[in-house]
Amino acid sequence: MREISMRFDGSNCDAALDGVLERARASVRPAAQAATQVVYQEVLLRVPASPKGHWFHGTSFKTTGQKYWFEPGSLRRAIYQAYSADNSTQDHATYHVSWNRKKAPYGHWVENGTSRAPAQPFLRPAYEASIDRALDAGRVKFSESYASLAKGGS
What we know:
There is one protein chain. This protein has 6 helices and 4 strands, in the order H-H-E-H-E-H-E-E-H-H. It is mostly helical. Helix 2 packs antiparallel against helix 6.
């Protein structure tokens, strides 16, 4: 019976793998932002805007009589994307796309409708229409970021 002997020196592997996890973690947030940007742009395309300004009053109107005037496009201008540090980790980046309730408190009723006005959803349809493109953009950005860091970029 013949015997075959093999040796493997893993020291080169250790050197090659140094920094892989750090580069991957550093690439997560840019990739998530790139994906979020695609969804954000789609939301901006889909958010309805009235051609004229309008009055808005909340449930306190009956007791306070307070109404607020909103210029056309105020809901579109209230759309934002933001990194959520509270919902993110070093391995997972979370971004939110929504509207600023102080700038457009009526956004919920536009998205979901009321007993008197039909819903004009724009967030969910924008997400559904753009998620595949967003994921692709995130993958591309992750690869670019990782490759740049591997070459010594910042």
